Amino acid sequence: MKKLVNYGFVVSFIWIGFILSISFMEAWVKFRAESLDLPTALDVGRHVFGALNVVERIFSVFLLIVVFYRYTDKVVVAAGVLIFTFIVAQSGYLLPELDENAQLIMQGMQPEKSSVHMTYIVMEVLKVAALFALGLRQVKLFKEN
Asked: pLDDT per residue over 13-62, tens digit each?
């Protein structure tokens, strides 16, 4: 178990890869495919982001355990708590709202204007930055021990 906790920083970098490949590449590319209609793209997106969210929930719990079990460093603790908070907000509020909006569009209706999508994007950018800072700090502290 100690070895798993000592190498917990690996999860940060794997997680960054997930976010960059799904949130910043797959989603963007999918909506540029001319043969894919909007309802189908939204349905695929709902499933992909739902799966990503499950993985992120698991990673965030693991990371929080690692952070509080192994570290007292303020940067590591703050980044860990921030990332966990983002996952709670995305899982509990943002993704359900985005899913509801997608459902409305898929049914041919227009959802009300909101800032939920932009908030999600900003959180993704901040989450990547926090994961990067967390991972680098954990590597630095690992090397010092």
From this structure: 999 999 999 999 998 899 899 999 999 999 999 999 999 999 999 999 99
CA separation, residue 87 to residues 29, 49, 59, 64, 81 (Å) = 24, 12, 10, 12, 10
What pTM value is reported for the model? 0.91
Amino acid at 88: V
The number of beta carbons lying within 10 Å of the beta carbon of residue 138 is 28
